[in-house]
């Protein structure tokens, strides 16, 4: 993802836990394409720090050498290799510094009403960590929100244009699968999201085409 694509994505404003995943997915895609995700990943416990590469010295190519003019033959060639490596590392450093600056601009532009909590920070990694602690939904909240949207989408099938409904259904279905929910029927058995059979303890219930089983709590959520 290029910087121009990130600019286009600025229409996605962080509104709360409900769109945290979408908002951070844009940041993650850009950061990974620019090789800076490891520096800002809010879920990483230990993040590396981007540091300016140190220029090589003549002493690294020849013992006791203090000036490049003292280098000859293999020592001079070694120093030239060190210089070339430094130029490459310096360019990478500049590119990543620019990417991080672009990323921070995007955060400030799209953080919406949460700007106040990051106003005193100038580091993208720290900003994302603060926002994660404040906005990212807990597992329970995420499950509850996806479950509610799953069933409300099912109920809206007769009130929504087919293409629009399919789009909404696919989105919430993918989110539920990412949370390891199981789907199936509430009769003799159900089909899990991985295609394997799953036995339903409520075999005496009437068939129902939309059963959801949450991974953390293991109970049936009836569709009414």
Automatic annotation (TrEMBL):
Lineage top rank: taxon: Eukaryota
Protein name per the record: Uncharacterized protein
Organism: Pochonia chlamydosporia 170
Lineage, uppermost ranks: Eukaryota, Fungi, Dikarya, Ascomycota, Pezizomycotina
């Amino acid at each position: 993802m290029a910087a121009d694509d990130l600019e286009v994505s600025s229409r996605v404003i962080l509104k709360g836990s409900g769109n945290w995943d979408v908002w951070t997915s844009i940041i993650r895609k850009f950061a990974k394409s620019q090789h800076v995700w490891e520096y800002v990943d809010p879920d990483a416990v230990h993040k590396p720090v981007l540091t300016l590469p140190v220029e090589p010295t003549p002493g690294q190519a020849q013992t006791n050498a203090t000036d490049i003019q003292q280098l000859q033959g293999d020592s001079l060639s070694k120093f030239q290799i060190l210089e070339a490596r430094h130029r490459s590392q310096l360019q990478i450093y500049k590119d990543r510094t620019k990417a991080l600056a672009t990323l921070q601009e995007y955060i400030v532009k799209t953080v919406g009403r949460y700007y106040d909590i990051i106003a005193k920070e100038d580091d993208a990694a720290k900003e994302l960590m603060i926002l994660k602690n404040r906005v990212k939904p807990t597992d329970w909240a995420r499950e509850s929100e996806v479950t509610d949207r799953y069933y409300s989408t099912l109920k809206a099938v007769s009130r929504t244009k087919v293409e629009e409904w399919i789009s909404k259904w696919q989105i919430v279905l993918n989110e539920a699968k990412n949370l390891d929910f199981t789907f199936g029927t509430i009769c003799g058995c159900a089909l899990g999201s991985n295609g394997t059979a799953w036995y339903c303890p409520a075999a005496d219930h009437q068939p129902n085409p939309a059963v959801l089983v949450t991974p953390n709590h293991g109970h049936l959520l009836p569709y009414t």
